[in-house]
Design a protein that fits this description.
Structural class: alpha+beta
Strand order of the largest sheet: 1-2-3-4-5-6-7
Radius of gyration: 35 Å
Shape: elongated
Number of helices: 4
Number of domains: 3
Order of helices and strands: EEEEHEEEEEEEHHH
Helix content: 25-40%
Strand content: 25-35%
Largest sheet: 7 strands, antiparallel
């Protein structure tokens, strides 16, 4: 005896439905181009989907609960048994039938609004966040404040800027446009330039204070010389 059935799964806010017909055992659901099997769908919480049109690819897609930790249920989606498996959520645009992804898991990387993430997280659009924490891959430039640090004289910096149209060690505008910006590395470079600028300001301030003192001494000497000449 068979009966028609409908299986719906809510995963990450996406409703996934499989229409088909139960076999007598109640553990196999046949559809037009796929077979959904389970050792016991009703008790194990396991749903396996196999596509009969995949040829030699017999990797399974499996939804199941993993309750290996007490009082902490896990709902897992297994995509085959290799890193190259992909999973996408999106839609076919009705105007031209082009697939538009909302997000994609591809080779272990997550893409938002892209099917081809080139980093662990790739976002094709703007990000709105209250805070972003970046682990440093380069050392913080406190070494600039050490006594043995070789600070470039301002005239050398000026000559470099005239010749290159950007600060030393800072990428050019063309580099930014071509390669983008590494936030952690760029923040450390900017901090280095701030520390170098601070050292130059301290040096210039000392020179100004020294000139002010020389002016005061000169004025006092002039006053004394006038008094002496009047006598």
């Amino acid at each position: 005896m068979t009966k028609k059935g409908l299986i719906s799964i809510a995963l990450l806010g996406i409703k996934f439905s499989v229409f088909g017909q139960w076999i007598d055992s109640g553990t196999v659901l046949n559809t037009q181009d796929a077979v959904v099997t389970s050792s016991s769908i009703t008790t194990s919480g396991e749903l396996i989907i196999r596509d009969s049109n995949l040829g030699q690819n017999h990797d399974k897609v499996q939804f199941y609960r993993d309750d290996s930790i007490n009082d902490k249920a896990h709902l897992k989606l297994q995509l085959a048994d290799e890193l190259t498996a992909t999973f996408e959520v999106g839609y076919n645009r009705y105007q031209d039938g082009i697939w538009v992804p909302y997000f994609s898991l591809n080779n272990g990387s997550l893409g938002i609004a892209t099917s081809t993430p080139d980093e662990k997280l790739t976002v094709n659009g703007k990000i709105h966040s209250k805070e972003v924490r970046v682990d440093l891959s380069v050392p913080a430039p406190d070494y600039v404040l050490e006594k043995d640090y070789s600070l470039k004289p301002l005239d050398e910096v000026e000559n470099y800027i005239i010749a290159n149209k950007h600060l030393p060690e800072i990428p050019s505008a063309n580099d930014f446009e071509r390669e983008g910006i590494s936030v952690g590395e760029m923040n450390m470079l900017l901090l280095k330039k701030i520390e170098e600028l601070t050292l130059h300001l301290i040096s210039q301030n000392k020179k100004v204070e020294n000139l002010n003192q020389q002016n005061k001494d000169l004025i006092e000497n002039l006053k004394k010389s006038r008094i002496f000449s009047n006598n």
